[in-house]
Specification:
The chain is an alpha+beta fold. The chain is built from 10 helices and 12 strands. Bound molecules: N-oxalylglycine and nickel (II) ion (NI). This is 1-aminocyclopropane-1-carboxylate oxidase1.
Length: about 350
Amino acid sequence: MVVPSNEHYGWAKEVKEFDDTKAGVKGLVDAGVARIPKFFVHPPESLPAPSKTTLELPTIDFEGVESGGARRKEVVEEIRTAAGKWGFFRIVNHGVPLHIMDAMLEAIKRFHEQPVEDKMHLYSADSRQRVRFNSNVPQREYDSACWRDILTCVFHDDQLDPDAIPLACRKEVQEYVKCMIKLREIMAELLSEALGLSSDHLSRIECMKSEALACLYYPICPEPDKTLGTPKHSDTTFLTLLMQDNIGGLQILHDNQWVDVPPVHGALIANIGDLMQVISNDKFISVEHRVLAQPVGPRISVASFFTPSLRASAKPFEPIKEILSDENPAIYREFLFKEYYEYYKTKGQDVTSALPHFRINE
Ligand code: OGA
Ligand code: NI
């Protein structure tokens, strides 16, 4: 952990004052701050050096994938390569209607841009609350905050009481999540096939049967060189499906270089999570990514995080037996999803992945 040199500058007081506004980072921008509060400042080594590479993330075209046949085989092959080498890929012709995607982005903007009085009742740091609005107040002294606000909607076993969803985006969230669930089903089949398993394997083990929608709002930042929109991390999910608007700023770490993931209207991004890396015994990789703070915005993105059903959460996960052999023995021990997630949270910002902790012979 990096401790700022002038200790005790009133970190806790500053954080509390910000938290008490319940207005998030957007509230600071609306108040016209020209300098970001100190607890948003990240240590120089975690700040972005300009990306030099022109590498392009793979794009996979899902056209014709459901009819089976030759095209499906090709797609499965492309997924196997992309999930194994990049952990991230863009999907086009995924079947989610463009108007539903655009309406969702608009609705999330509308939620965050409504008067503070209308959203502050949802402001909460309690992760058990299924629908909540918050910013990202650091829990541990000297962890840095980042320049974004979030509306989270958690669907356990694909379910959430519609009345719990804020009116500003209720209809759109319901429509969008339906599409995400449909695409999750397709992804589960394709990923199963890419692992050499029967098509229904991942669906049967219910490892992606719940989803949390993180509806993110990244306001314009007055000092973008000092902070981040989202710090470097890998996702503690099985799979993440990400939609971003046209602003950009997402980067992924590939072969030790930060690669820009520029927006493509209508495309979605699939991202292998830590737990999928575990059950695939490293056949698929979960890679680190981040979002820059920018002098332009606001940027809107929606991450759909897929995690196990309630029933599957009660049982441990481990590398899938069918893909193991004498030459490919299990690299990870079995553990509960909750155990993984709790361990990850204790790591704070100094370690970004919890995977090594669950490796055999660490
Ligand atoms: C995340 C994430 C990326 C984005 O929320 O885990 O990586 O573009 N978001 O907002
Ligand atoms: Ni992420």
